[in-house]
Write a structure and sequence with these properties.
Elements (H helix, E strand, L loop, with lengths): L1 E3 L5 E2 L13 E3 L25
Antiparallel strand pairs: 1-2, 1-3
Length: about 50
């Protein structure tokens, strides 16, 4: 969703980058996810070959 920086009118993302009032559109802020990012262990993936 995009919001007009002047009149606060909302537009879908597919709409043009300008509002009908002529002001540029800003992306509405998205809430951050509540979960923490995944923790990766150093013993898997490419780190298996670190000793070579």
């Amino acid at each position: 969703m995009r919001t007009c920086s002047v009149c606060d009118r909302e537009y879908p993302r597919e709409e043009p980058w300008r509002c009908s009032c002529g002001a540029p559109l800003d992306y509405a802020s998205q809430p951050l996810p509540d979960s923490r990012p995944a923790q990766f262990s150093r013993t898997s993936g490419v780190w298996d070959f670190a000793d070579f």
